[in-house]
Amino acid sequence: MTHALELKALRKNFGKTEIIRGVDLAVEAGERVAIIGPNGAGKSTLFNLISGRLEPTSGEVLLHGQRIDGKRPYEINRLGLSRSFQITNIFPKLSVFENLRCGVLWSLGYRYSFLRFLSNLDDANERTEELLHQVHLEKKRDVHAVNLTYAEQRALEIGVTIAGGASVILLDEPTAGMSKTETAHFIALIKQVTVGKTLLTVEHDMGVVFGLADKIAVVVYGEVIAFDKPAAVRANARVQEAYLGSSVADAQAGGH
Ligand SMILES: Nc1ncnc2c1ncn2[C@@H]1O[C@H](COP(=O)(O)OP(=O)(O)OP(=O)(O)O)[C@@H](O)[C@H]1O
To answer: Which domain holds residue 129?
Structure first.
């Protein structure tokens, strides 16, 4: 079976320090996976290796069975993997609509010749309207991104991330900095917009992890020590011992 995303014996050294120490992970199409682990465990480095920001020292990254390690981030994006870069990928002085349309046009631009690209502008506008609706920003359509609330900016960022129709989405701490209510709405939004897609998040908030993830990958000291459904990860003695104990128990007790 071909997985949506697969990491094989992945390693990354910075100088003489081994940061990712042989990671194997196979994510099925349509799964939502949260990557958790203590500070400095290597979660961001893994994301950087998957999205092409960093090249692995050894090992493989496969997207729908195709090797992508060593490719440039934009090439990986074109192959169907899109990563949010938090608010930095939003143009502050463009409106919400224009921001979303940029994402759509960019994806059309590479798929079609220039003439075809022009003839597809109507399609792009239609797709942008659809995105506006998906991220619940219709009422903010003409507002400059800089004037949105923080939570709205994060919603816009998700819209831009999914604009190109990528099938694998990487989100880095999508609810960081949000209030509890905003977080709850945002988890619902992420679930809606990623239906049928494969989602990977790096996440610290256990409430978000248990609310969002079908599976959890626990990274400790550059290795995946558990990859399983939330209930199984909660019960995993190695995870409890290595890292999570109290956080998982708290999240469970709190009903998150
Ligand atoms: N470019 C780099 N050069 C050298 N060391 C690095 C580099 N990037 C990350 N590291 C080191 O690799 C280790 C893992 O960092 P990483 O940011 O991947 O961890 P993390 O699990 O995402 O942590 P956090 O939860 O705090 O964001 C850390 O010790 C960090 O200092």
So the answer is: 84-165
Note whether 91 and 143 are within 8 A (CB).
Answer: no
CA distances from 135 to 3, 58, 78, 182 (A): 28, 38, 22, 13
**pLDDT per position as a tens digit, 23-55:** 999 999 999 999 999 889 999 999 999 999 999
Q: Is 74 in the same domain as 102?
A: no
> Phi, psi at residue 55, to the nearest 5°?
-100, 135
Q: Which residue's C-alpha comes closest to atom 28 of ligand 1?
A: 40
- Asked if 42 and 19 count as a contact pair (C-beta separation under 8 A), the reply is yes
Per-residue DSSP letter, 166: -
The whole model's pTM is what?
Answer: 0.88
d(C-alpha 183, C-alpha 127), whole Å? 26
Measured from CB, residues less than 6 Å from any atom of ligand 1 are 14, 19, 37, 39-45
